[in-house]
């Protein structure tokens, strides 16, 4: 029950890593504002009102103000913000259009910046030693062909995390990120063809594609008081993908 009496916001909460994170926070006692642009899957009734569903498009310029207003009205505070919402646009670099680029940046980077700013302002006002956790990707450091806007946003997110951590540290607020590898989510399933899955199993040292719950565990650790002395860090949750330079199926003599 690490989050008893805590108020948490999770974006991208309808599915995948966001859903797993919100579920774990609820299980550990938090009041959770589960935010997503759409809510398609039903949630179990906690019976105590700790789950608050919130329709929110993080790319909308008005989203931070609406979120802040609801938090101030209903909770009066926020302790945890988990920026999980993200989108992926697949196209060759030479064919990416301006609208595609702008949309990916709006969700994956700009939305994170301004939602974090809104949450941090409330944390500072209420003298809350809050936690902000951003979700990056192994492809911030390992190239992913045909996903240039996505990789650009994840690299930018990690740099932004460090700057936010530096500026918010005097207020007792920590800012960290997790860097997931291959994870089965609504976003990734369409591209996980049998061939891709076989290649990932061969490439990943631990030989597995993660369920969302494994990444959520890392997010909740960084969101908890157990990580009170960690800020500006990026935690790999990728089965060893990024660190491994071996050639699958071969070995040097």
Structure keywords:
Rossmann fold; 7 strands; 38% helix; seven-stranded parallel beta sheet; 253 residues; alpha/beta
Written account of the structure:
The structure is a single chain. With 253 residues, the chain is an alpha/beta fold. The protein has a single domain, classed as Rossmann fold. It has 6 helices and 7 strands. The chain has helices spanning 16-27, 63-74, 98-125, 148-168, 194-203, 212-223; strands at residues 7-11, 31-36, 51-55, 80-83, 131-135, 174-180, 234-237. A 7-stranded parallel beta sheet has the order 3-2-1-4-5-6-7, with helices on both faces. The mean pLDDT is 95.
Strand content: 5-15%
- The radius of gyration computed from the alpha-carbon positions, rounded to a whole number of angstroms, is 18 Å
Spatial gap, N to C terminus: 51 Å
Shape: globular
The CATH superfamily appears as NAD(P)-binding Rossmann-like Domain
The name CATH uses for the topology is Rossmann fold
DSSP helix fraction? 25-40%
Average of the residue pLDDT scores: 95
Highest-level CATH class: Alpha Beta
Structural class: alpha/beta
Give the number of helices.
6
Second-tier CATH architecture? 3-Layer(aba) Sandwich
Strand tally is 7
């Amino acid at each position: 029950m690490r989050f008893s009496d805590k108020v948490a916001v999770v974006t991208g909460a309808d599915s995948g890593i966001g859903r797993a994170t919100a579920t774990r926070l609820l299980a550990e006692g938090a009041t959770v504002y589960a935010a997503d642009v759409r809510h398609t899957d039903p949630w179990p009734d906690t019976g105590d009102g700790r789950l608050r569903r919130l329709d929110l498009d993080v790319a909308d310029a008005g989203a931070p103000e609406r979120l802040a207003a609801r938090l101030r009205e209903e909770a009066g505070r926020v302790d945890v913000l988990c920026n999980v919402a993200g989108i992926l646009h697949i196209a060759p670099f030479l064919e990416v259009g301006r609208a595609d680029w702008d949309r990916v940046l709006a969700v994956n980077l700009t939305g994170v910046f301004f939602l974090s700013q809104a949450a941090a302002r409330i944390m500072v006002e209420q003298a809350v030693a809050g936690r902000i956790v951003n979700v990056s990707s192994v492809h911030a450091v390992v190239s992913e062909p045909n996903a240039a806007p996505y990789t650009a946003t994840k690299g930018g997110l990690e740099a932004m995390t460090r700057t936010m951590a530096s500026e918010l540290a005097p207020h007792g607020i920590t800012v960290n990120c997790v860097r997931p590898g291959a994870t089965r989510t609504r976003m990734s399933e369409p591209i996980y063809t049998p061939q891709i899955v076989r290649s990932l199993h061969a490439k990943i040292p631990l030989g597995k594609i993660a369920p969302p719950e494994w990444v959520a565990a890392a997010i909740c650790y960084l969101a908890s008081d157990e990580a009170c002395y960690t800020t500006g860090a990026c935690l790999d949750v990728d089965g060893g993908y990024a660190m491994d330079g071996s050639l699958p199926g071969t070995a040097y003599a």
